[in-house]
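Person: I keep going back and forth on a fold encoding question. Show me how you would write down a chain together with its backbone fold. Please set it down just below, with no commentary around it:
Helper:
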Amino acid sequence: MRKTILCAIVLLGLAACSSDARWNEFRQSEPQLKEAREFALVECSGREECSQRWERAMEYVARYSATRIRHADSAGIETGRPLEAGVVYLSATRTPADKIGERARISLKGMCKGMYGMDGGPGWLYASCASQIRSIEMNFRESCSIWSEIVG
């Protein structure tokens, strides 16, 4: 009986340390993830340029999402939600930046099942998911750049 109680106390202590470590990682990573989300934005002007960048966005989503594109039109791209946790899936939106449709903002959003807990804090897979999403979102702008084709 004493061994069972002692094991339970040790396990609770380990769980508390693990939880504290996840919250510390969350506090450090969340601002970096917010920055990556803000960086995953491309602006364009002119119908041709916007069409080219939107096409590149669709290619990027198809390449980096773990799931296939299930819907795409001139305003949004959605991939399916994965069944398993820890897998990144993406969406992109194209928002007009003027009334005549000559300018637009294209943004990318990465999501990952298991990244956040029910309380809005870090889930069990937060560190892995945040790292993957940050990398994908930080590289989006360059991939959608028209100049990357000319220079590269």
Summary: The chain is about 55% helix and 20% strand.
